[in-house]
Amino acid sequence: VPPSTLRKEELHSPPPPPRGRCLLSSASSSISIAVMPITIVHCWSAPRSRSTALLYSFEARGCDTIALDEPLYRRWLQEKRGTNGIGRPYEEELLGGEAPDDEDAANAFRWEREKKCLNQRVFEAVQTLVDRGETEGGCVFLKQITKFSYLFDFATNFERESAGGDAGRWRRKCLELFADHDVVHRHVLLIRDPVAILSSWTGKSGTVHNNNTHPDEIGITKLMEIYSEVLGASMSGSDTHEPVVIDSDDLAWDPRSTLEGLCDSLGLGYTESMLKWEPGPHDCDGPWAKWWYSDVWESDGWDLDNGIGHSRTQKYRTVPPSLVSCIRMSTPAYDFLSTLTASYRKRAIATPPSGRLYEDPRNENVLVFVGTPSATSRRGKGRIVPREMAAISPFDSSVQGGDATWEGIRVYHGRIFHLKEHLDRLFRSARALGFENTHSREEVKDAIFRVLAANGMRDGAHMRLTLTRGQKCTSSMNPLFNCYGTTLIILPEWKPTEGATTYDNTAGISLVTAGAARRSMPGVIDNKIHHNNMLQNILPKIQANNAGCADSLMLDDEGFVAETNATNLFLVRYTSMDGVDTDDRSSYVLVTPSADACLPGITRATVLVLADELGIKAEVRRVSLSEFYSADEVFTTGTMGELTPVVEIDGRPIGWTGSKRGAVTSLLQSAYKDAVANRLDWSTEIPAFS
User: CA 655 from chain center: how many Å?
Assistant: First the structure.
C-alpha cells in the first residue's frame, strides 16, 4: 500500500508479532505466551499429476509434518459409486473400513483409518504436532483430489457436514484446539498438462477406474472451481490466503527450486530431505495405494536430473479419441492456471535492452483483440483476452507462411492519428494479396474502439494491427484451403514515442549500412504491400544490434538508399556551407528516396505535406549513399517513433553540428507534434468509455 494512502497512526504502528507468539496485555504488564504456528496445506490436483510424489516430499520433512492421503476419498466413493460408471475393485472394503481377506494384517490400520472424516483426521494431526512440542511450528499436508472438492467448504476450510456424519462435531473440536494455536490454512493447486494426464489414463491403472472418461472421474476442470472458491474466500476477509499454483512438470524438471519456491510461498522452511524418500509403501498411504502407486513406490525421491528417481525410458503415448473432448474442456483451465505459476513469471530466458520485460508495467496486463469476421451465416468471433491467453491457430496463414498485412497506429489525446490512412493501406494490401472473406472496415474500427476501451487507452498508446489470410483447414500454402475468413489481431500497448522500444528523438541515433540484405524492387516483392514477410527487416536489424546501432540503412538492388529496416529516411541539404537559417526556406532542401523499393510511409507523407505548407522545398528521387554521408541533417520517420535525428551513419558524423539534432529536423518535429495536437481532420476521435 503506498504510504500516501495510510493514516498517520498506521505509518508508525508496530509490525504484527511473528507467528508463534501471542502477546497478552494487562493494566500492569505484558506477557508473552508461546503458541505453535501450524500450516494446514490442502494440495488439490487431478489424478496422474505426481501428487503422491509431492505427498511423500512433505512426509519426508520429518516430525514437523504429518501427511494425509485423500481423506475425502471414502465419502466421495460412498456418494458416487454406481453413478456415471464410477466404481473400484476395493470399494466394499473401503466403505466398510475392513481390510480384504488377502490383505497383510499389518495394513489393517489403513482401512480402519479411512472411516474417520477429514475433520477428525486434521484434529488428530494437529494434536499430534502439539504433543510433539515442535515449537518452531508444524505442517499438516493433505493430498486432495479435485473431484472431491464439492465435499469441502472453502469458506471454513473443513469437510462439509452430512446427514448422519460427524464432520460437524469434529469441526467444533478443531476450532477449540486451533483457538490456542496459530493455525493457517493454505491451498495449493498442482496442475499438469491435460494431454500428459489423459494419455496415461488408460495405462496400467486404467482397469482400476474401468477406463472411465466421465468428468466426475477425471476432474481437471474442477481446478478452476477450486481456484475461484479459494480466491473468493481470500477476498471475503476470511483467514484464507490466495492459492499457490505449481506445475507438476516443474517439480519433475527442477524439484529443488520448485519445492523451495513452494515452501517459501507457504511460509514454511525448505529442507533437503524433501528431495528423497524410502522406496515402497509409506505410512501415510491410503489402503488403495497398491492399485495406484506402483510407479512412485519404485522411486527413492526426486531425481535432480530427471524428475522422479527411478530408471525409466521416455513414454510416447497415444491419446484415445474418446479423451479428446476432455482435452478440449481441460486445456483452457490449465492454460489459465499455468500463468499463475512461478515458472511462468520467470519464463523469460533473455533480458531486453531496457533490462525490464515491460517498459511500462501496465503492459503486463494488457488486453488483446483476436478474431474472425462476421458472415451472412454467423456473427464475427472476435474477442478480447489477456495478453498471455491471446492465441491464433498454428494453421493460420501468418504462422504457415507470414501471409498477412499489418499497420502500426498511434493514439494521442483521445484520438487516433491518421486512422483513415492506415486502414486504407491495410485494405489495399489485403486486396493486393488477394484476401477473401475479410473483415469489413467497420468491424475493424469497432474492434479498435473495443480494445482501447477495455484497456482504458486514450493517450500514449500504440497499436499493432495484423490482418492474416486466416486459418486453413489443412497445412498448405494454397489459399484455397483458407475456409474461415481473415484473422484480425489488435495488440495495443502503452508505449511512449521515445523510450527503450523506440528512439531518442533529441540526442539522435546511429545507423549502419546493411550488408547482404537489400530492399527488393517490385519485380521481386513489392514493398508497397505492407506484408508480414519481415526477414528482410529482421536480418538487417540483427546487423545493427551487433554494430551497436539503432537500425540498418538499407540499399535497393542497384545500390541506392531505400529506407532503414524500420523507417523511412530524409536528408537535409543546406544551400550554403555556412549553415542554415530556418526562417529562410531557400537556404535548405529536403530530400527523401522515392518509393520504388520502400514502403511509402504515412508519417513520410505527413512530413512532405508539412514541408510544403511551411514552404520547404522537397525532392522525392533516387538518392545515393554518399549523399547521406555528406548531408547536413538526416532523420527517420515512422508512426511509432515519429521524427528521429540521425547523427551518425557507418561511423561518420552527419553534418557540421557536432553530432546533434539539426535545426530543420527540430523545426519539422515541432510541426509534426503541432499537427498531432491540432489537426483534428487528420485524426479520428475515440468514443467515450463507460
Answer: 46
190: which DSSP letter? E
What are the pLDDT digits (tens) for 283-314?
999 999 999 999 899 999 998 876 555 444 56
3-state secondary structure of 65: strand
* Global confidence as pTM: 0.83
Task: Give me the residue label for grid cell 520517420.
Answer: 637
Q: Which of 30-34, 330-334, 507-511, 607-611 has the lowest mean pLDDT?
A: 30-34
CB atoms under 10 Å from CB of 364, counted, come to: 12
Lay out the sheet containing 383-386: strands in order across: 383-386, 367-371, 487-494, 461-468, 404-412, 415-417, 683-685
Q: What is the 3-state secondary structure (H, E, C) of 10-31?
A: HHCCCCCCCCCEEEEECCCCEE
Residues 6+ apart with CB under 8 A from 165: 75, 117
Within 13 A of 515's CA, how many CA atoms are on the CB side?
6
- What whole-number distance in Å separates Cα of residue 28 and Cα of residue 403? 81
DSSP 199: H
State yes or no: pLDDT of 57 exceeds 60: yes
CB 158 within 8 A of CB 40: no
How far is the C-alpha of 302 from the C-alpha of 50, rounded, in Å?
11
Buried b (16+ CB within 10 A) or exposed e, 81-100: eeeeebebebbebbbebebe
C-alpha cell at 638: 515512422
The residues, any chain, with a CB within 8 Å of residue 411's CB and separated by 6 or more, are: 417, 452, 457, 458, 459, 460, 461, 462, 463, 492, 686
